[in-house]
Structure formats: structure tokens, C-alpha cells
UniProtKB/TrEMBL annotation:
Any GO BP: negative regulation of DNA-templated transcription
Coiled coil: none
Region (Disordered) location: 1-30
Single GO MF descriptor: DNA binding
Matching InterPro entries: Metal_Tscrpt_repr, Metal_Tscrpt_repr_sf
Protein name (Swiss-Prot/TrEMBL): CsoR family transcriptional regulator
Residue spans of biased composition, Basic and acidic residues class: 1-10
């Protein structure tokens, strides 16, 4: 259920000065829906712990939560690269590459 990013939005605040993102309403809605599902999954994991559920079952649910969070991260990273990063490179701001590499390294931990 990967969303294709084809937005023609102004990204003038993507730089380090503005530090704002520019998501379309569709993208924002998609991200919020995913986060709401993840929030429910986390409440479910908490419930499993409270019910003394077998550890392997809890760990499988935790894995599902991590996978869902990774999906949100990938979606945001794709949007960021196709909009903010590209705009800043076109403006001659090469520092964005180092910033992006730091972000990717954090995501890959």
C-alpha cells in the first residue's frame, strides 16, 4: 500500500530556516491513518503484557509494530528526498546531503 509521491507543492520552507514539511492532504491523511493503526498495535502489545501472553507472541507483535513504523519512515523519507532534498540541491545547498545521510543512518539502526 505504498503511496506514490507526485506532488507539485511549493517547498520554500524545506530548508533549515523554515524546518517545515509540505505534505499534501492525501499524504498527511495516509501517514496519520498509519500512525493511528500503529498506536492501536502498541496498545495491543501492552494488553498482551498485562495478560501474561507468551513472550514469543508478544515479540511477534512488536516486530509488526516495528515494520509498520519502518513503512511510515520510508514514506516520509521518499517524500523528503523527492521534495525538500531535491529543492535544496537545486538551490545549491549541498549541506542537505550530509543531513540526509545522518537521517538515513538513524533510520537504519
Amino acid at each position: 500500500m505504498e503511496e506514490q509521491i507526485h506532488e507539485s507543492t511549493s517547498h520554500e520552507s524545506c530548508g533549515t530556516d523554515g524546518r517545515k514539511s509540505h505534505h499534501s492532504d492525501k499524504t498527511k491523511s495516509n501517514i496519520i491513518s498509519r500512525l493511528n493503526r500503529i498506536e492501536g498495535q502498541i496498545r495491543g502489545v501492552k494488553g498482551l503484557i498485562e495478560k501474561d501472553t507468551y513472550c514469543d507472541d508478544v515479540l511477534n507483535q512488536i516486530s509488526s509494530v516495528q515494520s509498520a513504523l519502518n513503512g511510515v519512515g520510508k514514506l516520509l523519507l521518499e517524500h523528503h528526498m523527492k521534495s525538500c532534498v531535491m529543492d535544496r540541491i537545486q538551490e545549491g545547498d549541498d549541506e542537505v546531503i550530509d543531513e540526509l545521510l545522518k537521517t538515513i543512518n538513524k533510520l537504519m539502526k
